[in-house]
Design brief:
With 150 residues, the chain is mainly alpha-helical. The chain contains 5 helices and no strands. It has 2 domains: 42 residues; 85 residues, Cytochrome c-like domain (Cytochrome Bc1 Complex, Chain D, domain 2, Orthogonal Bundle), CATH 1.10.760. It binds heme C.
């Protein structure tokens, strides 16, 4: 009797402790399920594009407009007008071409040189953000057929 009950009790203890300790990694694993979608939805919190967006809104949007269309509040007072950064003509320009204009400005236009005010890294970040302003529509723009009336 005694001999058989001892291993039985210790076996119960063993399962209880393994269960308790196994809940810790389980909780750690499941907490990722909550964290990962939050990152996907909001974007990585401090990415280059995010930093570029802040620079753009602070320094560039006044001329180039919030969406890069060249229609910022200063635009009507400038000749030549600030460039649209999302036109087909601008989109085909290489990163090197854009970075040169951002660093050195554009002669005989209001486009300032930023090389003394923004680091090379910041100029790359703002360019990364500008490129995200170009959006392709994955679906045709025609509206879907109306739903059947019931
Ligand atoms: C004071 C107004 C003004 C501000 C502020 C300004 N720009 Fe410009 N930008 C211009 C004008 C004007 C042009 C020249 C338009 C043209 O090329 O026809 C230009 C041209 C450019 C071009 C060249 C576009 C092309 O197709 O060649 C880039 C890139 C650009 N700006 C980026 C920026 C960035 C990035 C910032 C902020 C860091 C900025 N600009 C701030 C007025 C401005």
């Amino acid at each position: 009797m005694r001999n058989s009950s001892v291993p039985f009790r210790s076996a119960r203890c063993l399962t209880a402790t393994t269960l308790r300790t196994s809940t810790v990694p389980l909780l750690l694993m499941t907490s990722w399920l909550l964290v990962i979608p939050a990152c996907v939805v909001r974007g990585a919190p401090d990415s280059a594009v995010d930093r570029g967006r802040l620079i753009y809104l602070e320094r560039c949007a006044v001329c180039h407009g919030p969406q890069g269309r060249g229609d910022g509040p200063e635009a009507p007072f400038l000749s030549p007008r600030p460039a649209s950064l999302i036109s087909a003509g601008a989109s085909v320009k290489s990163d090197a071409e854009f970075l040169a204009v951002i660093a050195n400005g554009k002669p005989r236009t209001a486009m300032p040189a930023w090389k003394d005010r923004l680091s090379e890294e910041q100029r790359r970040e703002v360019l990364a953000y500008i490129r995200t302003l170009i959006r392709f529509q994955p679906n045709p723009l025609t509206p879907p057929p109306p739903k059947e009336q019931r």
